[in-house]
Specification:
The protein has 5 helices and 8 strands; from the N terminus they run βαβββαβαββααβ. By secondary structure, the chain is an alpha+beta fold. It has one domain (5-190): 3-Layer(aba) Sandwich (Aminopeptidase), CATH 3.40.630.
Length: 213
């Protein structure tokens, strides 16, 4: 695999994300972050971009998004859906979805995305990342428990079908004063996606996360 980098995703990049799998609770054939009613970016994605300058992170290879993670403020998470706003902690940003295309699984891309998200969110007032998992089909854009536990999340709301997990930023990103300039340079590597070439067709449904992503 050629060298890849983590890039910021804005609302104008959401149409470039791979469509979800037919059984995904985000909606069959739906592109995450887009309003199902066809009104552009969903409210939570627009609010995240307004607050943070991005609504997610993606890994791009040859202008194709092969893995992504989407984030939202708990204030803007929809009250219905796989990441229902009920019971969310106000100090935690919400991971709306994480996905790695099947052919890029088990290369550590999911872990890179989580680490990059933690590094970004540590600069905000939020103290943690939270997300609901699924014990169902592994190809879903909602992360399975095995993946979350492998990258440092711990369960805070046990449930047989959709447990909720939390990753405390204080345990993930430790600040060392002498290394702050170097850390800032690392964050500067996370750049927006380049413009999409004219006429490029959208990618169809495919892929998922394994516990060793």
């Amino acid at each position: 695999m050629t060298r890849v980098r983590v890039r910021r995703l804005g609302t104008t990049d959401l149409h470039r994300l791979p469509e979800t799998c037919p059984l995904c609770p985000l909606g069959a054939g739906h592109q995450p972050g887009l309003d199902p009613g066809g009104n552009g970016a969903a409210t939570w994605a627009r609010a995240a971009e307004t607050d943070w300058g991005f609504c997610g992170l993606g890994i791009v290879q040859q202008d194709r998004v092969v893995a992504y993670l989407l984030l939202a403020s708990p204030l803007h998470v929809p009250r219905v859906g796989p990441q229902s706003g009920f019971g969310l902690n106000p100090d935690a940003a919400v991971v709306m979805s994480v996905r790695v295309l099947e052919q890029y699984a088990r290369l550590g891309l999911g872990r890179q995305l989580v680490q990059a998200a933690a590094a970004r969110m540590v600069r905000t007032p939020f103290q943690a990342l939270e997300t609901r998992s699924t014990t169902g089909r592994s190809g879903c854009a909602i992360p399975p428990p095995g993946f979350l536990e492998a990258v440092g999340f711990t369960v805070i709301d046990p449930h047989p079908l959709d447990p909720r997990y939390r990753l405390d930023l204080s345990r993930t990103v430790r600040w060392v004063p002498d290394l702050r300039p170097a850390f800032d340079r690392v964050l500067d590597w996370v750049r927006p996606l380049p413009p999409e070439p004219a006429g490029r067709a959208h990618q169809g449904p495919s892929g998922g996360l394994g516990s060793s992503t």
